[in-house]
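Suppose a classmate hands you a notebook page containing two proteins, each written out with its sequence and a corresponding row of structure tokens. How would you begin to make sense of it? This section walks through that situation. The first entry is reproduced here exactly as it would appear on such a page.
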Amino acid sequence: MRVFLERIWFGGGRGSWLLAPLELLFALLAALRRWSYRLGLSSSIHPGRVVVVVGNLTVGGSGKTPIIVWLATALTARGLRVGVVSRGYGGTETGPVEVLSSSSPARVGDEPVLIARRTQARVVVGRDRVAAAVQLAPAVDVILADDGLQHYRLARDLEIVVVDARRGFGNGHLLPRGPLREPVRRLSSVAAVILNGEGEPGVPGMRARLAPSGLVPLLGGKRLHLEDLGGRRVHAVAGIGDPERFFKLLESAQLQIIRHPKPDHAVLTPADVEFADGYPVLMTEKDAVKCMGFARAGLYYLEVTAEPEAVQGARLVERIVELVARRKGSP
């Protein structure tokens, strides 16, 4: 079903008209939900700290996690105490519970563990994002909500949408006929649109790229650069929303890759990274946090750093800093 839908959404596959009635139903329900909050029929709750939602319009990955890592790092460098709330997809924890760098991805999700490892932010996961934000609030100055653009129960001060510039908005239809959770016109109401990667999705926004910062062996030890592999043949394992983005990044370094795409948030086992030919196995950092329990020689993850356009990125960070200052100064 997933392959069938993605072929329709992103590959120009035929048959989307069959899903048109379901798309209309989804659009109606989504609109009713939005208006229930706008009219005050449903209540949004603010945790008392500046809330910045980093989300997307489409299902699947758009590169939000590296953007959150960049933003958390930049805000920490400005002297702010940063917190991150996440639904914890892929984990069993209902929460709210704080995530440590040593937490189990099977329990709290892979992305929260990655964020806890890469930043100084305090991370809390929970199915109830409001409860997670309330738990974080006393200890932080600003809360970054990982995803949750459509989670209107959590009141927010600023919204950022990350767009996969390569895949864009697919066929432009709402779920399940297309990949959109909300219409593209929703972008007109957000504070910033970040276009992640190369491509022309047809909307204006701040450009960002994911820059490789090293190959890290899962067992620890000396880091490598992609160039150190000298164009060798490698296995590439990616359990992210758009595995092809990872594969193309490796190919841009002249590596000969054997593709092993996995579903987003897939649970990996030793068999998923064990191959008889002995070629090095490269994976995303998001996948690596799930493989630490069976790490071995020859397993590496590619650490990437989000690099938004410098001037616009600095302006966005400054805008959040000013929001925090105003909230601290308010009675």
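The notebook's second entry, a different protein, reads as follows.
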Amino acid sequence: MNGADTMDTSTLKVIFTSGLVSAFAIRHPYQRENKKNKVAVDRQTTREKALLVLVIMGTIVLPLIYVFSPWLIAANYQLPLWAGYLGAIFFVVALWLFWRSHHDLGKNWSPTLQIREGHTLVVNGIYQKIRHPMYASLWLWCAAQALLIQNWIAGLAGIISFGIMYVLRISDEEEMMLEQFGEEYKAYMQRTKRLIPYLL
């Protein structure tokens, strides 16, 4: 595969880093607001904290090491030109979904398994069709990462780390919501899908 058939590595790095900065900009005001809201139910176990650290390592730390240092260069791979464009599209859609999830949740958002005082069940906006649009955005983010960070370690670290967290956390989160909202959440589960409307 020659250079004309692939996207320049520097361009890929700029696209990914721009997406990462945009994600921080989207989350920052909600994170600041989140600190003001008192926690009513807290299920932050040691495992939960470890999973969050794992995801931060996989989606932020390792990609940034790849972007700003030569340490992982031996694990690079090359994808066709279209993969870079597809990665950029995935990241744009992921960022929109990431923003929309935060926007629709408002003060109900929490980065971990917590319920805040005055927490309400959000079933409108993007949540009208899927229960976990934030997770859907992160799956797209991780797919974009694998296409833009063309490195066996930094590129795939997002899918692996987030995949582990998703599998281990999703049932606990829905169980917490069932305990909090009971039949209302059960009915909501029956008319929605977790990630993709009408499918999954």
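A careful reader of the second entry would note: The mean pLDDT is 90.
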